[in-house]
Amino acid sequence: xxxxxxxxxxxxxxxxxxxxxxxxxxxxxxxxxxxxxxxxxxxxxxxxxxxxxxxxxxxxxxxxxxxxxxxxxxxxxxxxxxxxxxxxxxxxxxxxxxxxxxxxxxxxxxxxxxxxxxxxxxxxxxxxxxxxxxxxxxxxxxxxxxxxxxxxxxxxxxxxxxxxxxxxxxxxxxxxxxxxxxxxxxxxxxxxxxxxxxxxxxxxxxxxxxxxxxxxxxxxxxxxxxxxxxxxxxxxxxxxxxxxxxxxxxxxxxxxxxxxxxxxxxxxxxxxxxxxxxxxxxxxxxxxxxxxxxxxxxxxxxxxxxxxxxxxxxxxxxxxxxxxxxxxxxxxxxxxxxxxxxxxxxxxxxxxxxxxxxxxxxxxxxxxxxxxxxxxxxxxxxxxxxxxxxxxxxxxxxxxxxxxxxxxxxxxxxxxxxxxxxxxxxxxxxxxxxxxxxxxxxxxxxxxxxxxxxxxxxxxxxxxxxxxxxxxxxxxxxxxxxxxxxxxxxxxxxxxxxxxxxxxxxx
Length: 507
What we know:
Elements: H1 4-12, H2 17-37, E1 51-53, E2 66-71, H3 81-93, E3 97-103, H4 112-131, E4 135-140, H5 143-153, E5 156-162, H6 167-179, E6 186-189, H7 197-200, H8 208-216, H9 219-222, H10 245-250, H11 268-289, H12 302-306, H13 312-320, H14 327-350, H15 362-370, H16 382-386, H17 393-405, H18 410-422, H19 427-441, H20 448-459, H21 480-486, H22 489-496
Parallel strand pairs: 2-3, 2-5, 3-4, 5-6
Antiparallel strand pairs: 1-6
Helix pairs in contact: 5-6, 8-14, 11-14, 13-14, 14-20, 17-22, 18-19, 18-20, 19-20
């Protein structure tokens, strides 16, 4: 049987000339939509609610010789509100536009797999910037360390940055704000969410039910076409430092044994091929088959979403066109891509403890604590879990899928995570192990979606209390027999080769 990696690769892009032509046409059609929307960002009514001024200073100083877009979460040129806003400032002030990406040596539990996807994607961004007369700079270190002096050296008049609700990037932003010159405005734009996180809600939402209408009621205002990023008319007086892209990957402090995957290649063009194949082949079965891991029914866009190499808003605009044809599938996909994804950003933005038991609701903390000392039928180490050495062949197959492909089917990710709660000594260990494994192997790890997925499974976030049982307490339970009722478990196990390992209790 073909592996899912090959299957997904075949469904994401094909090498036939006809397919290449259709991809080119598809991308050209989207570019034409941008150009029809506005000649440039200067002729477009930019929604100022997408913007937050982080600094006290709001005006660009007279000495300004350039504007910087500090790119981080959204590594793309087109369909990027932050990039567009930076170009707007540069055009208004008649100065060059620079893009800086600040590359740190180590990021949480990321492996070379994720750094490869990020850096190879940036290489393509740099090439596109060059065509548009925009300088791209790869700086070593965090934005708080690498940018302040660079801004002074080059008389930069304003910095536009991405929005990211996670504490490490928020820390970079806070650190940069303290070190930047006081007369240089620092402006944040949420280019990742359709409805900016701070606009969607001003508090932590309880569930999808409580945020859904808040987001959906604002889509008419925010789910709009994009104008184009244009060839910049003002040229920088200095050249960017040459970039050795392969060396940039090699010099990261990351696990080299977890390498790139075959089925997903980085960059906007590859994301567009995957989007096109989803629209053509998989969207029609998304509503009915998305929870079946043996079916190829998902968009498969999560790696490109995570690194911001494609805009969720662009995908939503494309999917929306099929509403009459595939109503249920379109509604289901927009619910997941917009409402559920933006709920995850909401949780991480407003909850300080988004990756800790402390972030759970009171009922969940209590029930997990009440059942803390319940006897576990199996207890596994992190190493055993990483190596897929449990007694459960379905769990092992899901883990192997993530190790091999950098992606686990969404339905199985819930089962996988809940079993970690069942098979580890404490809820704290379970959450720590689940987050580590997801962050280390999954291309889209270290993401609000991932943290919320683990918190939903283990801590009942965005869920309710269920019938009480051992270990789980009132947290929702999932089991092997339930999976058998949903899909062909044997077919999934055969595809990934997860074996049942004999359990030997540690003394």
